[in-house]
Amino acid sequence: MPVGVSTEPIVLLPTAADRPANATHPTVRGARGQTVPVGTFPPGLSDSLAHGLEQLADEIIAAIAAEVPAYARPLEGSFGQGVRRGVEEALARFLALVDAGPQAAGDLAASRDVYVRLGRGEVRAGRSLDNLLSAYRVGARISWRRMGEAARRAGLDAAGLVSLAEMMFAYIDGISAASADGYALAQFEVASERERLWDRLGELLLSGADPATIEHAASTGAIRLPERMAAVLIPDGPGDHLSARLSTGCPRASHGSDFWLFVGEADDPSRRLWLAERLAGTGAVVGPCVAWQQITTSVERAGFARAALVAGRLPAATGPDPLITDDHLTELLLARDPRLLDDLAQRRIAPLAGLPERTRARLAETLLYWLTLHGQRQLVAERLHIHPQTVRYRVGQLRELFGDTLDDPDARFELELVLRATTCRGPRPTAHPPAAQAPTAHVSVTQQPAAQQPTSQRDPAG
């Protein structure tokens, strides 16, 4: 905004060319008749400028309210007092600089804290720094218009007016810089406080603190927790490469070498896809999405799933992508009691125990698909990418090994449970051919089934 100037006629003072050659020190006669050296301030100039200071403050405040929308509100209460105090303080400190003279350095050290606090206050009020800087410019324009007039009447020559203007511009630059520093510092502090609050909320959620305690902590930072959240376990911490991909705007906590995130609305398809993309390759485990008051359920399941995966009790969940626990509920249920599962396995798949490992793996996989697909030989062959005759041959072997057990509904159910929990396989068998399956937002990368191996490694038809 351009700096305003007096609208009254300006009287041109004598220049160096107009002065007599024998003049050693040019002078000008002031309003009170005193002789003032050119380029200096006449004695008592600050007193002259201070005349009508209260009216000048009122004029500045009115102009700020009219020209800066953020301050266009009734100047009442603490807000109005703060604006008036800021204007009066700025005028008083500028006059102190004038009193020191144009040759004095414009030192803001004594008053810098005032303007730093003003900048910090804008952050607390939720306003942009531009508003405060605009108010400074408005104040400078009105102040120069009135003080320039008063200085001229007090006998200030042209060089002195230039010095006075330079002092005012430097003063505005200085207080603007101080306020900008205060604004940036407050922004950093607010961001740091919010990050610490996310850490605190994460610790409370991870420890299973009382919901009222968690709500109170969130309210101190005006944070509203999402209604539903999922606990995400990242083994060995997120690392620098992952931190850049993860949003920091959510509760998080460290526990030993593990890092936990609490992500809102994680059961939303787009949110789930977002998580899968950013957690790929980290070995992360995503618990179920539950009401945040029940987040310990998600924490416990994610922790259990990680332990089961490390122990090798989730063969279908291997791979670099994050483990989404909702995709492996059956496996997690069976992994809950390893000894019980071992007993059931010894009871139901004992006929396979004496076979060579390669043969045992092929027959176990064939039996799982045969049970899941209700004995439909063609579908089993398509899933395993083998000839239907190979399926017939393997099923014949299985009937020789298991006998009438394969016709017992209870035994078939138990066999399928055991095989689902112990057979390392690719995509879970379903009762529909692959073409009928709808695409999913997230696909786990798991070990390919034997059917995907080179032709030389497939079972011969027979």
From TrEMBL:
Composition-biased stretches (Low complexity): 427-462
InterPro entries, sorted: CdaR-like_regulators, PucR-like_N, PucR_C-HTH_dom, PucR_C-HTH_sf
PucR C-terminal helix-turn-helix domain sequence ranges: 363-421
Membrane spanning stretches: none
Domain of life assignment: Bacteria
Region (Disordered), start-end ranges: 424-462
Residue ranges constituting the PucR-like N-terminal domain according to the UniProt record: 41-206
Alphabetized PANTHER family for the sequence: CARBOHYDRATE DIACID REGULATOR (PTHR33744), DNA-BINDING TRANSCRIPTIONAL ACTIVATOR ADER (PTHR33744:SF1)
Designated name of the protein: PucR family transcriptional regulator
